[in-house]
Amino acid sequence: MQTLTVKRSSRLSGFYRQSPERRRTRLVESRWLSPEEAESCAGLAGFDEACADAMVENVVGLHGLPLGLALNFVVNGEDRLVPMAVEEPSIIAAASYAARLCAEGGGFSVTADAPITTAQVQLLDVPSLIAAEAALRTNTAELLAEANGYLGAMCARGGGARELEVRVLDGTTLVVHLHVDTRDAMGANLVNSLAEKMAPQLAALTGGRAGLKILTNLADRRKVYVRATVPAAALAFEGFPDGEAVRDAILEGQLFAEMDPYRAVTHNKGVMNGVDAVLVACGNDWRAVEAGAHAYASRSGVYRPLTSWKKGPAGELVGLLEMPLATSTVGGAARTHPGVRRALKLARVESAVDLAGLAAAAGLATNLAALKALGTEGIQKGHMALHARRVAAEVGAEGELVEIVAERLARERIYRPERAREILAEEVRRKEAAR
Ligand code: MEV
């Protein structure tokens, strides 16, 4: 039997103007979802109080966030929809816009390290650091074998303990790192348990006393690397017809972040806008990723941007993002939260490493959109245009009237609902008169 590969496009024109119901129908028409899956997308996707009560403590209700899709993403040659759950307006629009620019240069190229999560075991009051280090090195193979003895199920899935590293913290304190391939799990519980099981043996070998046993969120063995290029001509837009000038403005913004930690933090916040929104939609531990990202940004001793934008040999804009990104597609919320399963399905996520790549591509995209807006017309114009659409919808505008009312509000720079109501009434009258 011949297997047909379904080619789907992540470019769904006019999507942003449609109603959530119509958007779900488009997802069925464009073969991203089956009709049943699309139907189950509506609302909380089956997430109820019983699910919530099984997840956390003292539940008294549910708390919702919008789930949107960033479009136009081509990742390693494949079209992808990028689910984002976020409270801040304009992030999803910004990601979709920048992804379209990157698609002009062939999309995002993503590579990633193996999914290594690292446990730390603190060893205090070590009588001789030299002897302790020697003992740990001599026994590394046995210790890794012992660790893998505790990780039977993970080893069966292709993961397991890979490396034992020793670091000296002061004259009597060591820390042992157990680097574990946790496959599609983030692996926090797994490596924390492993650290607790291994600690007595490590203490005995070093003559020290075991202190804390916990993973590190500086997941620098679990990095992701994203690259995208945008031809300079693609950067031109209304009011800014010179793409090379727009590129140069983006490069100036990059330089600012490289020279000033105050700017670098905001630059990286723009990266995390994309990364976190994907992680939240996919039920991942975004606090862990945030902590690791900012520590990684400071690794040189100075807080620096996580992305770099440069001019390529043909004058194109070349962007890179490198950051630790520990993700999971199994266990945790992926098991208990139906909305998370829906998001993973929408994104057609194949593995934790794949999810990390998608989140990072979203981060590079939101960073590009911010730099482009900041270097040209400023960030507020786009924000206010989206705000105008919201006000128009709030006062009852539907279909094409949302755009018409929003455009007039933005032109007048008045965003009050009373004015939106007046404009809507005028436009409705105009439409009726034209019939
Ligand atoms: C706002 O959420 C994010 C930005 O501040 C990022 C940036 O300044 O690069 C626009």
The ligands bound in this entry are:
(R)-mevalonate
Using only CA atoms, what is the Rg?
A: 25 Å
As for the number of domains, it is 3
CATH architecture of the largest domain: Alpha-Beta Complex
What is the CATH C-level name of the largest domain? Alpha Beta
Which overall shape is indicated by the principal axes computed on the Cα atoms? globular
Number of helices: 17
How widely separated are the two ends?
55 Å
CATH topology of the largest domain: the name is: 3-hydroxy-3-methylglutaryl-coenzyme A Reductase, Chain A, domain 2
Give the DSSP E fraction (strand runs of 2 or more residues): 15-25%
Quick recap:
The protein is of the alpha+beta class and 435 residues long. It has helices at 20-29, 35-41, 49-55, 91-104, 129-138, 140-150, 152-156, 188-206, 243-259, 261-281, 286-297, 332-336, 338-346, 352-375, 380-394, 400-412, 417-434, and strands at 67-75, 78-85, 109-112, 116-124, 160-170, 173-181, 209-215, 223-230, 307-311, 317-324.
